[in-house]
Amino acid sequence: MSKKGKILVAMSGGIDSSVTAMLLHEQGYEVIGITMKTWDYASSGGSKKETGCCSLDSINDARTMAVNMGFPHYILDIRSEFGDYIIDNFVDEYLKGRTPNPCVLCNTHIKWEALLRRANMLGCEFIATGHYARIREENDRYIISKGLDETKDQSYVLWGLSQESLKRTRFPLQNYRKSEIKQMAIDSGYEELAKKSESYEICFIPDNDYRAFLKRKVEGLEEKVDGGEFVLADGTVIGKHKGYPFYTIGQRKGLEIALGEPMFVTEIIPETNRVVLGKKEELEKQSMSVTKHNFVKYASLPADFEVLTKIRYHDPGMMSTLNVVDNKVEVLFHGKVSGVAPGQSAVFYEGNDLVGGGFIEKPGKN
What we know:
By secondary structure, the protein is α/β, with parallel strands linked by helices. The protein has 3 domains: 6-130 and 172-195, HUPs (Rossmann fold); 223-278, Adenine nucleotide alpha hydrolases-like domains (SH3 type barrels), CATH 2.30.30; 283-363, Elongation Factor Tu (Ef-tu), domain 3 (Beta Barrel), CATH 2.40.30.10. Helices cover 27% and strands 30% of the residues. The protein is built from 9 helices and 17 strands. It is globular, with a radius of gyration of 22 Å. The N and C termini lie far apart (61 Å).
């Protein structure tokens, strides 16, 4: 039995999780590797070659690393619970005219819960992942902050994790840059890992065509929603579109309508199959409501709490004031913010620390 104890490492077969396992093994932990199969691409009907964390090649790469390092490796099939929760929610959100955030939901409700259940079964005190984020204990709270490599920081997708989950979580890459991780892999004889391309698509849509995915998942969807109206904010009809689920807030390309100036999707109205178009400035909002929130750094927030709010993963963020009213977080931006999309995550930061986050319910007035 290792003096450091047993730790269950989520291994996708990629460089980050592989080096995570390698680091922990070298530090003296009793490592157990686990690869979660979350979806079956063969049944999704996509045209692109199977790649990514759930492909047979990736599973084999994770197992090979475990065998080479001399620790056990398991495959955990969670396709059923993943599909029932993540994919069903993804489809439902688009049908409600919203833009879903499946990675946050998966981390919060599927991956961490599945990892902790299996960790309990295997007698592991901790779990570890290859996320670029930091974690520390302070004032009886487990706090997430941005990783050292801000170009790879993944704290944005971790806002939903509970204190109980964070208590048992380790992020071994938190003090490294991506370039250092690649060099570690090369120095350890895993040059092929360093050459692996990274995927930024949603894992169950590797061809990045969510519209085709929706058509495959919802029988007759195209026929049901085709021919809806493009309108201006005052209700003036200016054309026909292919169905409201196939558009997102802020979209400019692919509208297939010429109005003599750039126009953007500013609102989606599923009840009437209408898509509202407007000029760029009509996308700008100064407030929004956020629901299903989770606070990480603090158990609760005082009134008029100032934070940096990000509404997209690569959003630089805007300073804003938060107030919790009727179990919703009311966000008042200190400037205009463009492209507030219901369904996406709003994530709050105090310096580098993750205060918490939630799902955008609706934007306020311009």
